[in-house]
Design goal:
mainly alpha
Length: about 90
C-alpha cells in the first residue's frame, strides 16, 4: 500500500508541475511571443508598402524615360536580348 500511495503522490505532483509549466508557457506566449509577432507583422507590412511604393516610382521613371527616348530604349532592349541570346547558346 505504501508503494501505491507513494506512486500516486508522485503522479499527482508530476501532473501539478505539468499544469504549472503549461500556465507559464501560456503566459509567456501571451506576454512576449504574441506581441513580438504582432510587432514583426507590422514592420513587415510597413516594409512591403515602402517597397511597393519604390517599385511603382521606379517603374514610372523608366516608363517616362522610354517615352522620352524610344530609340535608345529599343537599342538597349536589343542589346540585352542579344547578350542573353549569346549566353543561352
Amino acid at each position: 500500500m505504501t508503494l501505491a500511495t507513494d506512486t500516486h503522490g508522485k503522479l499527482e505532483d508530476a501532473q501539478a508541475q505539468i499544469a504549472r509549466l503549461r500556465e507559464q508557457v501560456e503566459t509567456l506566449m501571451k506576454d512576449r511571443v504574441t506581441p513580438a509577432l504582432a510587432d514583426f507583422a507590422g514592420r513587415a507590412e510597413s516594409a512591403v508598402h515602402t517597397a511597393s511604393g519604390v517599385v511603382r516610382d521606379q517603374a514610372q521613371a523608366v516608363s517616362g524615360r522610354v517615352k522620352d527616348q524610344p530609340i535608345i530604349a529599343i537599342m538597349i532592349a536589343a542589346a540585352v536580348g542579344w547578350v542573353i541570346g549569346r549566353m543561352m547558346r
